[in-house]
Amino acid sequence: MDVDTQLEGPPRVPKPHDFLWFPDGNVVLATDTYLFKVHKSLLAVHSSVFRDMFELPNVGHADPMPGQGGAGLALETYEGVPMVTMVGDKGEDVAHLLRAVFEPNYYHRDDDNTPLEVIVALLLLSTKYDFNAVRKNIILHLSRQYPMNLEEYSALDSDTTSMFGKLRNDCHFTLLAAALTADVDVLLPGLLLACSDFSTDYIFRQTESMTRDALRILIGGRDSLDVDVNQYIASLPQKLQQFGSACPNGRSCFSTAYFNDLQGAIPMQFKAFTGAEMVEKHLSSVCEECCSYMVKVIDGERKELWEELPSYFELPGWAILQANLKAIIES
Ligand SMILES: [Zn+2]
Predict the structure, then answer these.
(1) Helix (H, G, I), strand (E, B) or coil at 25
(2) Who is most buried in 76, 106, 256, 288, counting CB within 10 A?
(3) Residue 26 and residue 232: Cα distance in Å, rounded?
């Protein structure tokens, strides 16, 4: 007898949900913990999966034929009302989804205090059942936190600030797993980059539920990006020589300038690799104008790396991902 069997009590009987039980509802959705009595017409407006299911003969009508449910959906009746069993979905998660559909103030796509479990439930279930408006809102919301352009990425809050009721740092892996399951490619570069900013040991421990291929892409992309960032940093002394006597003040800044303690800058991750950081901490013996010039040069390299970012993680380029996001917004 294994531990699970020993701990298993009598089978739990799902009970009607406190709010999501409309007496005049005409379909019951059953999960492991809750029953929801709602209206077929409203579900059908929001979800193509339910719309298609209710259009099938014998489905969602009185006296349904057993064994004719759609994928993952078993059909019975509950007190004379057709009942759809949502196989594999947690009651709490379905409650989040239905509340987002039935209560206009339950979820706002601008509210970064929305709990992480609500965000994840909405993303996964809106995808599974094609609740298009919910899915669109949640993807737009997440795309602000995991943006596609460098300016927005650079303006993000620090990883130790709060997001979705947790520290930002504690959201990345959960959201990456959800985005992979929901196949939302537009979020993946930002999420994979955010998840790259951890030790290999931590990454392995946080990705146990992910496929080996997803882990390979994350580690591989992280390593390649780190190599490119750090090779560029190592090449900075050589680059200085190329500028010769370019000082706008007529001084010999670049012939006397030097980068100090570059070994202290390596290994550097993409997030920390900015012109301002490199020049402020490591460049000596140049005037203010030459400093600004070097900041621009280094930030130019940062931008070039960003332009290629999706390819590090085996994803299509930004233009395709931007078009995919536009298609989601316009769907
Ligand atoms: Zn100068």
Answers:
(1) coil
(2) 106
(3) 64
State mean pLDDT over 116-123.
98
Residue 206 is predicted with a pLDDT of 96
Rounded distance from Cα 279 to ligand 1 centre (Å): 13
Q: What is the rounded average pLDDT of the residues 155-183?
A: 96
Cα 206 from Cα 200, distance rounded (Å): 10
| Ligand 1 centroid to residue 239 C-alpha, Å | 15
Distance of CA 80 from the midpoint of ligand 1 (Å): 84
Q: What CATH number does domain 9-136 carry, 3.30.2290.10, 3.30.710.10, 3.40.50.720, 3.30.1330.10?
A: 3.30.710.10
Cα(247) to centroid of ligand 1, in Å?
4
Look at residue 195 and tell me whether its pLDDT is greater than 50.
yes
Query: Omega of the bond prior to 267 within 30 degrees of 0, cis?
Result: yes
State residue 250's pLDDT score.
84
Rounded to the nearest angstrom, the distance between the alpha carbon of 287 and the centre of ligand 1 is: 4
